[in-house]
Design a protein that fits this description.
Blueprint (H helix, E strand, L loop, with lengths): L11 E5 L6 E6 L9 E2 L6 E5 L2 E3 L3 H20 L7 H5 L11 H22 L8 E5 L5 H8 L3 E6 L24 E3 L12 E7 L8 H11 E10 L2 E2 L3 H19 L14 H11 L3 E4 L5 H4 L1 H7 L7 E2 L1 E5 L3
Parallel strand pairs: 5-8, 6-7, 6-9, 7-8, 9-10
Antiparallel strand pairs: 1-2, 3-4, 4-5, 10-14, 11-13, 12-14
Length: 326
């Protein structure tokens, strides 16, 4: 194998080819070290560096997601996601200085507080070394930034790399950290990391975008260290699948009317149910622990009010974590 600027270190991760799973070398987490072009001599895949983001997705898979990416970015831009101002990113998730999506960021802030104050400390007891955390669906990198400030070593993964709402926006954090966390463009079911690398893998409001729930969990567990955990945060949960299907239909109809696209080019998981989570437990011999952040009284009574008014069950958010025991 041949790689440039990849060095073995105590605080490092081992990279893996997404084409053939061959080892590509180590990436230091002790300094700013996004990989330069990394060549796999086994299958000839090249993980290129573009604006300090490792492009760890084969061209055929990127083409598969191209319509989804186009629709997603169009809708997110119309919703007012992102900003040209640095303070927008630095204040996330606790304040949306644009005011355009404040209620959603309030939810994200409560979830993150629960993660950082309760869930992660329960999973990671030894803080002699900075825990390595994979932020899956990192978006603009706000969670990786907050994790870095808290003493973790995050790695950010997303399929979006634009400068407003994708990994490119993480440059706003660089001067506020000793070094910017590594960023990779990759899909959840094919990650560019060797086995047993991370203390925690967090699906950051992203699990519902997975095309195959078992493939996503299998890959996350593969990359997780023994006794580490896979965490699902901020994916909508419903008590009945029919409620989730109704939500999807309503959203697609609204998107079609407002944006001219249903944003349905890929078939994704969309939502969680207890049945789906139970199937994952059985498939991987894990057990989900559930934490429910308090999102406020108004949010808490939503299911009751919907029932009294004869409306569809609203989504709820929980944090699910499963330890890797073998």
């Amino acid at each position: 194998m041949r790689s440039e600027t990849l060095h073995a270190a105590a605080d490092s991760i081992q990279l893996q080819c997404v084409g053939c799973a061959a080892t590509l070398g180590h990436l230091s987490l002790c300094k700013s070290a996004n990989p330069t072009d990394v060549h796999c001599s086994n299958c000839e895949f090249v993980m290129r560096n573009e604006k300090d983001i490792g492009q760890a997705i084969p061209s055929a898979r990127l083409a598969h997601f191209s319509r989804f990416i186009e629709d997603y970015q169009t809708i997110r831009a119309a919703e007012g996601r992102g900003s040209l101002q640095e303070d927008f990113y630095l204040n996330l998730p606790y304040q949306d200085v644009t005011g355009k999506n404040a209620w959603q960021w309030k939810i994200r802030a409560r979830t993150f507080d629960c993660l950082i104050k309760k869930v992660l400390p329960q999973i990671i007891h030894d803080r002699k070394q900075s825990p390595i955390v994979l932020d899956l669906g990192a978006g603009n990198g706000w969670m990786s930034y907050r994790l870095a400030l808290a003493g973790y070593k995050p790695i950010a993964v997303d399929i979006l790399t634009n400068d407003q709402d994708g990994l490119g926006a993480a440059v706003h954090f660089e001067k506020h950290l000793d070094h910017l966390f590594p960023r990779f463009r990759a899909e959840m079911s094919r990650l560019p990391f060797a086995d047993d690398q991370f203390d925690a893998v967090i699906f950051n409001a992203s699990f519902h975008y997975a095309e195959d729930d078992q493939a996503a969990i299998r890959e996350a567990l593969r990359c997780t260290k023994k006794h580490g955990a896979v965490i699902i945060a901020d994916s909508p949960w419903y008590s009945a699948a029919k409620s989730g299907e109704q939500m999807v239909a309503e959203r697609q109809a609204a998107f079609t009317k407002q944006y001219g696209t249903a944003s349905d080019s890929i078939a994704s998981v969309e939502y969680l149910t207890d049945k789906r989570l139970a199937h994952l437990e059985q498939a991987f011999n894990v057990r989900w622990e559930r934490d429910t952040p308090f999102y406020g009284l108004q949010w808490t009574v939503r299911p009751l009010l919907a029932k009294l008014r004869g409306r569809r069950e609203p989504s709820r958010f929980r944090i699910y974590s499963a330890r890797k025991t073998a």
